[in-house]
Amino acid sequence: MEPLVRRVLDEDLGSGGDVTSRAVISPEATARAHVVARERGVLAGVQPASLTFKLVDPTVELRFEADEGASIEAGEVVATVEGPTRSILTTERTALNFLSHLSGVATATGTLVAAVAGTDARICCTRKTTPGLRALEKQAVRAGGGANHRYGLSDAILIKDNHVAASGGVAAAIDSARKQSGPATTIEIEVDTLDQLGEALEAGASAVLLDNMALPDLLRAVEMTAGRAVLEASGRVTAETVGAIAETGVDFISSGWITHSAPVLDFGLDFVSHPS
Question: Structure pTM?
Answer without folding.
Answer: 0.94
